[in-house]
Amino acid sequence: MANLSIIDKLKRSKILDLLQEGKRIDDRALDEPRPLVIDIGVIPHANGSARVRLGDTEIVSGIKVQPDRPFPDMGDKGIFMCTAEILPLAHPSAETGPPQPDVIELARVVDRGIRESGMIDLSQFVLEKDKSVIGLFADSVVTDHDGNLFDACSYASVAAIITSKIPKWEMKDDIPVLIENQESDAPITTIPISVTMGRIGEFIIVDPNIDEWGCLDARITITTNSDGNIVALQKGGSDGFTFEQLVKCSELSIAVGKKIRETVKQATEGGQ
Amino acid sequence: MGGREANVVLLDENGIRSDGRKVNETRKVTIKAGVLKNASGSAYIEFGGNKILAGVFGPRDVHPKHMSNPDTGILRVRYHMEPFSVGERKKPAPSRREIEISKVIKEALEPAVMLEKFPRTAVDVFLEVLQADGGTRCAALDAASVALADAGIPMRDLVCACASGKAADALILDVNNEEDQAGQADMPIGYMPNLGKITLLQLDGVLTADEYKKCIELGLEGCKQVYEIQKNALREKYFSSGDKD
Amino acid sequence: MKKFESKKRYVLPGDFITTAPLRLQGNVVLEGKRVIATSIGLSDVSADSVRVIPLTGVYLPKIDDLVIGTIQYIFGNSWFADINSCYQGMLLGQDVFGRGSYPTTSEMKERLDNGDIIYAKIANSDRQREPLISIADQSLGKIDSGELVKISPTKIPRLIGKHGSMIQSIEASTNATITVGQNGLIVVSCDETNGLLKALAAIRMVDEQAHLVNLTDKVKKMLESDGV
């Protein structure tokens, strides 16, 4: 995401000209996300996994479930952690080394959407209060970058979590011991779906691709839960939205999110 | 038996290994060339349970500049494992093991690539282990070589790789994770088949002088098998008839 | 007399081509007495030389090549353009404003800004420094309209065809104007949507099927058909 190559002016003016006619450079409607393809169980060694293609953006998410110590003031809850990384092979501009601010923002936005929705019932992850809990780690890696990593990483993480199997541990002499062959489904309460929208002039477009991303004035990511409530938000970009635009974005996120939630449900049916 | 763990049967009375293979058999290997949109060249390999993506960028500008060479291009390799690729979650930052493997893979590829035509530039090879199952460095090297050819980087030869080793007192081809953990020796080999040059060689374990010789010979057989699969992956991408649609 | 190894063969890096003592042209290397391919492509052995016509590879600037570039930034008195190579093209302010002139950055920006597309000539290229490019010619300069497409630079000779035959037949049957850069970048402009789509499809076809012998016929057939 850092210094995406400069978008050429021919493409930029084409994107802007088409928008005036209500069209987009890849023939989508303004409120239409790119085709979403979800494959589950792609990393059999992980406790859950998914590969997501949103247009030409590709993500692999893997879940690791393992015993851990609880956070000091959260002894009655398990641990949930979500990370995201842009692999250097995903784009010429991706860098190795410590994560850049935009990559950290990506990971935190994905994490927040899932965490705040209460998707996973973490109270079921306690082995011994204040001492030992189960941790669920959802790590996502971007393998091909064609814009809107927020939603692609979010869908991959959510699909991987839904399909994950939780091993059973029991406390023996203060140490969690794995009980073989006693896996259960992850305790899922809701399916959070993020929808990222960009503003170019007065136009709001859903799921901008990498070329459109280079033309955005501002963007917003809105995550909704299965009940259609808004659970997390993130505005980004060096410009703002009007109140009316924000209301429109919320409506779009609910309507588009509903359709994507169905796609995620279908893809993850039957678990791993 | 000289194994490190006695409770696994690595070789049964019929000479069949724990995963059903004969001693001189590799795991199933599939390679696809050109799988990434943004990279100059790429490949995906499944080598048994290993799943590895390779992406090549360049030749391109070198940052920081002082790393560049005014006479030739340089090769840079990063081997990296995803947090979910191994049994216990791996912390995302590169470990000493990953840094060493990056180096030996780079040195295995350097005799093959010809970067004299591209002074002051770098060719970057990124190897991402999505799932590890024993023998990742060989599988990663196999994928790297295909990705470099796909990127059009001039090469004297492809580099193919496969490990051989010893478990339950027998020499075996393509050591899997279990055999690596409980076996007696693991010897990854990288090979330029047309030039007959071994460019990667490591050994963990104990071999007699005679076993050492035989182990290399066995490993080279595996390399040659992988070489055919590498070539087919490139032929599939570049020389197919184009009449599929 | 039997023609000596004249048939083109598909080769991969490391593949043996011949032991004949021929002049080495491109994408081959001598290992002992054996001529070996160093690129994916088609081996081409003629009476006195041997080469591989590559199907993938990076563009290396050659003096007098015409290229298409995107301005990336201004530094000092020069523009730096992405010319789809391992080196950026350097366009001196003097080339545009005249010898001995020292334009300010804002004056330069007014002429050519980041993201602008230019058609340029490689004026100088050596191993030591960034290749110099020039737009000081009537036919060169900023490109204001059209669609920019990218194919493998190794396939540009095939797109142009013998004496320009391929590109001319694409232009003639689509009414498109096609500006071809040796570096694999192409700008296509056409007033008719159908012609534009057809020209783009033809270019894509050359990129994907440059290795096939009957490519010319296939492209012709596609151009003559009604749809895309």
SSE arrangement:
The complex is a heterotrimer of chains A (272), B (245) and C (228).
Chain A lengths: L8 H12 L15 E5 L7 E7 L2 E12 L10 E8 L14 H16 L9 E3 L3 E13 L4 H14 L2 E8 L2 E11 L7 E8 L2 E4 L3 H4 L4 E7 L5 E7 L6 H26 L4
Parallel strand pairs in A: 4-6
Antiparallel strand pairs in A: 1-2, 2-3, 3-6, 5-6, 7-8, 9-10, 9-11, 11-12
Helix pairs in contact in A: 2-3, 3-5
Chain B lengths: L28 E5 L7 E7 L2 E12 L12 E8 L14 H14 L11 E11 L4 H15 L9 E8 L2 E4 L3 H6 L2 E8 L4 E5 L2 E2 L3 H30 L7
Parallel strand pairs in B: 4-5
Antiparallel strand pairs in B: 1-2, 2-3, 3-5, 6-7, 6-8, 8-9, 8-10
Helix pairs in contact in B: 1-2, 2-4
Chain C lengths: L8 E3 L4 E3 L4 E2 L3 E4 L2 E4 L3 E5 L3 E6 L11 E10 L2 E5 L6 E4 H5 L7 H7 L5 E8 L7 E3 L6 E3 L3 E4 L5 H5 L4 H10 L2 E4 L4 E5 L3 H17 L5 H10 L4
Helix pairs in contact in C: 4-5, 4-6, 5-6
Brief description of this entry?
With 272 residues, chain A is of the alpha+beta class. Chain A has helices at 9-20, 101-116, 149-162, 210-213, 243-268, and strands at residues 36-40, 48-54, 57-68, 79-86, 126-128, 132-144, 165-172, 175-185, 193-200, 203-206, 218-224, 230-236.
Largest sheet of chain A: 6 strands, mixed
Quaternary structure classification: heterotrimer
Q: In CATH, what is the homologous superfamily of chain A?
A: GHMP Kinase, N-terminal domain
Low-confidence region ranges of chain A: none
The separation of the N and C termini of chain A measures 31 Å
Provide the gyration radius of chain A in Å. Answer: 20 Å
CATH class designation of chain A:
Alpha Beta
In helices, the fraction of residues of chain A equals 25-40%
Number of DSSP-assigned strands of chain A = 12
- Label the CATH architecture of the largest domain in chain C: Beta Barrel
